[in-house]
Amino acid sequence: MPQPTRIPLPPAAPARPEIDYGAKAKIGVIVPSGNIATEPQFRAMLPEGVAPFFTRAPLTTTDGDGLMQMAKRLDHDVQLLVDAKVDIVFFHCTAITTYAPGSDDEILAQIAAVTDTPASATSKGIVAALDALQAKRVVLITPYTADINRREVAFLERHGAEVVHETGLGIPDSPSMFAVTPGEWIDIARQHRRDDADLYFLSCAAVRTAEIIDPLEAELGRPVVTSNLLGVWHAMRTIDVTDRVAGFGTLLADH
């Protein structure tokens, strides 16, 4: 008697990946157009339920004219994030927000003219991080030119920090900043170690430093913060998201 034909069962469908749409909070971020480091780093550092949504403003160099032009064209960029119903608008560029006394407040006033959505900026995160970590003596390490470094040192000093040592790589554009490898940043931090420092600030949102925060803290014995780390931390805390995330240093894990 012939055997009945057996129809093979289809293979089990693969499990669908979980997609984090930001059920807990949506963080809207304005970044310079040449920055390709912030988006992946924010996604890696944010906790489950908090999602970043980005828009870009034209900026590829860190000269003064370029920085100020980006800061003057905000209405459209802000409205794009407002359309996405984000919970905060975060203007994220270290060099612009620390460029001159009050430059960050001018930016936040421009945002407030467009929306009543909570807003903040990188510079405000720097000050909040210094306070949270009770850091007064700072080693500043950047990819910037000497002029931008001087402005950032002045910003830190206006807010009560003593910059015990500073160095910049003299790089004028975002692609070249991104090209510096995480391993090279570790070597640079080692070369500029200061045992009298309370904190190491690896400044600039366009560089690959998020992955070296934990190893550097272990080696240097001091908190290490980066622009993208303090951006994630401060944006969340501004809207009362208190999740702590391990793997990216003391600030995000313990404060």
β-strand amount: 15-25%
What best-fitting shape do the alpha-carbon axes yield? Answer: globular
Number of helices: 12
What is the end-to-end distance? 75 Å
Largest sheet: 4 strands, parallel
Strand order of the largest sheet: 2-1-3-4
- Average residue-wise pLDDT: 93
Number of separate domains: 2
Helix content: 40-55%
Helix and strand succession?
A: EHEHHEHHEHEHEHHEHEHH
For the record, the CATH class of the largest domain is: Alpha Beta
Question: Structural class, please?
Answer: alpha/beta
| pLDDT < 50 runs, ≥5 residues | none
Topology, number of strands = 8
Using the CA coordinates, give the radius of gyration: 21 Å
CATH architecture of the largest domain: 3-Layer(aba) Sandwich
